[in-house]
Design a protein that fits this description.
This protein is α+β, with helices and mostly antiparallel strands. The protein has 3 helices and 4 strands, in the order H-E-H-E-E-E-H. The protein has a two-stranded antiparallel ribbon with strand order 1-2. It is elongated.
Length: 146
């Protein structure tokens, strides 16, 4: 695997983690939203990731011919809407309360979202660490030729 392929792999992971962070932030921002254009309260979103083969040149073709695995990156396959039922909260003074005084609140758990956000941030940081290491290796390789 070349240094550029390694950088592409790290970039694909960082892009996917950035999407996870954005979706977690969107969920947190809408944890009190009781009206949406679709009707009803906001529904939690979740990111689905999938592996994708990374394009390669002659090196990848040789590995494939030798029966070795190709490098695989990651991409966002889908952002799915949770089908969990909304939480009913008793608040008879709320404008969206039903006749019994209950308001359908989003199915967003702040703690779960914060854990997802921290996990995505740590994975993103790992990608930046990989890029930093690859850059350092490339710099050292160039110094050898001096």
């Amino acid at each position: 695997m070349t240094l550029l392929q390694t950088m592409d792999l790290a970039a694909s992971g960082m892009s996917a983690q950035r999407t996870r962070m954005n979706v977690a932030a969107m969920n947190l921002a809408n944890r009190s939203t009781t009206r949406t254009p679709e009707g009803g309260p906001y529904r939690r979103r979740d990111v689905v990731l999938e592996t994708v083969p990374m394009p390669g040149g002659f090196d990848a073709a040789m590995r494939g011919a030798q029966g070795q695995d190709d490098a695989v990156g990651v991409k966002v396959s889908d952002i799915v809407v949770s089908q969990d039922e909304p939480k009913l909260v008793y608040d008879p003074g709320h404008p969206d309360a039903d006749a019994a005084g209950y308001v359908a609140m989003p199915n967003v758990d702040s703690i779960r979202e914060m854990v997802d956000l921290m996990g995505a941030a740590r994975a993103y940081e790992a990608g930046t660490s990989v890029l930093s290491t690859v850059r350092s290796m490339a710099d050292q390789a160039l110094r050898i030729g001096r």
